[in-house]
Design a protein that fits this description.
With 163 residues, this protein is of the alpha+beta class. Keywords: Membrane, Transmembrane, Transmembrane helix.
């Protein structure tokens, strides 16, 4: 019986050594991956892309029977300040909305932006005979009479970075 007791106490020690070995391996892997990410970041020094809405205009604006017809033209300037990274815009969409109601939508062709470059993105969004909610129609009509209409413009894009 004394032999069985000695074997029983040795098995948890082997189990503990296995757990410790796995933990050390995982910790080492995490540290190495973190170090690789840090070195990559220090070499590339990524900077945020800068976007500016340069110009916006509204043409052929007409409100009739709670429907809108309008053409929205916008110019977006996209600046890539990175010295080692270029940007591929795989897709880009622009949306004009007024008080949470989408008025017009446009897709922009894919393009490439080299490092330290400014790209001019023009979008023409057309609202053609779009039905409006009664409250939106009333608010738009009121803003039209004042001479200024405030709309929300959103751009959404899928990008890839190349070093």
């Amino acid at each position: 019986m004394a032999g069985n007791t000695a074997q029983a106490t040795q098995q948890p020690v082997k189990h503990f050594n296995l757990v410790r070995c796995v933990a050390v391996c995982l910790l080492t892997l995490i540290v190495l991956v973190g170090l690789a990410v840090l070195i990559t970041w220090l070499v590339i020094r990524p900077k945020r892309l800068v976007y500016t809405l340069e110009n916006g205009s509204l043409q052929h604006f007409n409100l009739n029977n709670k429907h809108i017809n309008a053409t929205f033209d916008f110019v977006l300037m996209a600046y890539n300040p990175n010295t080692k990274t270029s940007v591929y815009y795989d897709s880009m969409e622009s949306v004009v909305s007024y008080k949470d109601q989408t008025l017009a939508f446009d897709t922009i062709d894919p393009f490439h932006q080299p490092h330290r470059d400014t790209a001019r993105v023009e979008s023409k969004l057309v609202a053609q005979n779009l039905a409006l909610s009664p409250s939106t129609y009333k608010d738009l009509r009121g803003e039209k009479s004042s001479g200024e209409i405030e709309v929300d413009v959103h751009y959404k894009s899928r990008v890839r970075f190349k070093v």
